[in-house]
Amino acid sequence: MSEQEQNINELIKVRRDKLGELRSAGIDPFGQRFDRSTDALKIQENFDDLEGSTVKIAGRIMAKRRHGKAGFANLQDLTGNIQLYFRKDDLGEDKYELFKKLDIGDILGIEGEVFRTQKGEISIHV
Fold first, then answer.
1. What integer best gives the mean pLDDT of the chain?
2. Residue-wise pLDDT tens digits, 78-87
């Protein structure tokens, strides 16, 4: 077996293990239905009206980074991209652990508050 095939097999094993962990936690990893209230483009275009309000949005995780007890992810839907902000103190240990298990490419539906980061990035505080 080539090194590339071994790497692919290891990746598949890691993904299957995560799938099992989600199911053990009572979470359907393939979801049912998620009713979103808006999309990335509308949030960007109507930020002044939406700032501080709660929105529901769904899309694919395109990037993810963690910084101590907080993390960010870029979510892409059919209209564009938006940054998500996750904070362990707000989510709690269990939900923050779920965030840590997200992989790039995963599809996610979230609910959170629209805000602007200190660096000026329009984001959703999950």
1. 92
2. 999 999 999 9
Are 14 and 41 part of one and the same domain?
no
How many CB atoms lie under 10 A from the CB of residue 31? 11
Do 67 and 83 fall within a single domain? yes
For the chain, counts of helices (H) and of strands (E): 5, 5
Which residues form the domain of 73? 35-125
* Closest by Cα among 36, 50, 46, 45 to 108: 36
Specify whether 78 is located in the same domain as 105: yes
Instruction: Tell me the pLDDT tens digit for each residue of 42-73.
Output: 999 999 999 999 999 999 999 999 988 999 99
Indicate if 17 and 41 belong to the same structural domain. Answer: no
Instruction: Give the list of residues 6+ apart from residue 22 with CB closer than 8 angstroms, or none.
Output: 28, 29, 98, 101
Segments in 25-120 forming alpha helices (H)? 40-45, 47-50, 88-91, 93-101
